[in-house]
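Input record (one chain):
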Amino acid sequence: MTGTDSQASVKQSDSELPIAESCLRNQKPIAEMLHAELPQHSFVLEIGSGTGQHAAYFTSSLSNITWQPSDVAELLPGINAWREQSGSENFLPPIVLDITQTQWPVAEVDAVFCANVVHFVGWSKVHSMLKGISRVLKDNGLVFFYGPYNYDGKFTSDGNRELDEWLRQRDAESGIKDFEQIVLAANKAGLSLLKDIEMPANNRILILQKREEQRD
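The corresponding structure, as predicted from the sequence alone:
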């Protein structure tokens, strides 16, 4: 997602489905990546499902996974509209999830997918989210963080610089995070970096894995 993409407003389609233009642009390459990296029959928690477009697209193209969307309460009707339209049995009803809450409404998942959330929130929420992910993720489970990141403290494009300015105008604590700091924070939550994959429009996919707990 470029700066322009992320600032695009969500629209209602003729069928009353919420539409984010950025999802239309990035869903195919993300689905291809998930197809290559996700183990078959994975139960996946999506954090910040937004319009529900990703859930609809991924469950139609990845029929061997079960997808649990989540977001704040006011966005659930739109996600449900996409679920009804898709008709996919592996597209579960969305749940309310506040990433700062101590107890999450899921017990255990094989993988977590999160697109364009990390840069929209402040560091305190990022840390809370990482701790929550570590609580519900199975040992050796995977985390997929999609979005823009800085490297060595530098923006990777003018579009990302503009996006960061826009984000900080709406919330001074938000903004594009440094790759190195995300990896460090993830390590503290028991998650190790496996891959850093280049995606279109100056985005990345960070694939993290939960370290297996050492038991006596």
